[in-house]
Amino acid sequence: MRKITKSLQIEDIPMSIQLPQNERNRQNRPTRNEGKRQTTHDRRLEVIDLQRFPEEKTFSERYKQDDLKEKLKKLYHNKCGYCEQYSESWHVEHYRPKNGGYAWLAYSWDNLLYCCPTCNEHKGSQFEIRGEKAFYIASDLPSIHALGQKYNAHEKPLLLHPEYDLVEDDFVFDENGQILTEQITNERLIYTVSEACKLDRKDLTDRRKEIVVDKLVQDINAVILKNKNNQEVMQTKIQGLIEVFIATSHRETEEFTVFRKYVITHFLQKILLKTLSEIS
Ligand SMILES: [Zn+2]
């Protein structure tokens, strides 16, 4: 889980979910569009009145319009906000669940994340908190796209938010890509990994190992085999491989950058020595 930077400035919020101009500064009863054409904001007001999120498509299609999906996809670089895996099929995920007591945030920009179908399915409507649950108040409407931080302060949610929480340094892995939750001290990270999103699931662990560690070992092996008669060239090429591996860990478009960084600081030397000794 890598920190994502998302702007909550009005001009950066997708047009399709924006508040109407006259609503942004209001403190009193919101106004409706009485015309035939229903906007996302009209749906938002209906949801607020109903105090639940209706199942009809006319409500759910409103948080996944093209402009919103394009912005999310770009911000998250086609990677799931939780597992950091590329995912061409993906869901617009509600951090605070629209069907789990937070319907009024169904169209709120800071509540919408890019999430792979598997993490989304595991998470479902889970949202455990340690503090007091937030509820809708009309005076919050003008800041409906940026209420997350305010709610976090008194709700103390266990689930991490990729846009608000920086936890890269709290992860502990083994060199096979397994997350060692028993060695992690951050309670929220443990909840997110083991309870909500199941980031320790086997297929994901295997893929972390394959993409990061196995690929590196394969590349080193190939260089050794190709240059075994010239130690000097071999060393230079291996050095080059390592430099690329380190640079890749800082590239936000790459998968599993958190694990990649962990490998660099904890296992790189060991992997290198092991690979070299197996070949010679
Ligand atoms: Zn995922």
Write the layout of secondary structure elements.
Blueprint: H1 40-50, H2 57-60, H3 66-75, E1 91-94, E2 112-115, H4 117-123, H5 148-155, H6 187-196, H7 202-226, H8 231-249, H9 257-266, H10 268-279
Helix pairs in contact: 7-8, 7-10, 8-9
Zinc ion (ZN) is lined by residues 80, 82-83, 85, 115-116, 118-119.
Explained architecture:
It is a single chain. The protein has 280 residues and is mostly helical. It has 2 domains: 10-166, no CATH class; 202-279. The protein has 10 helices and 2 strands. The protein has a two-stranded antiparallel ribbon. The longest helix has 25 residues, at 202-226. 32% of the residues are buried. The structure holds zinc ion. Zinc ion binds at residues 80, 82-83, 85, 115-116, 118-119. The site of zinc ion has 8 residues, from helix 4.
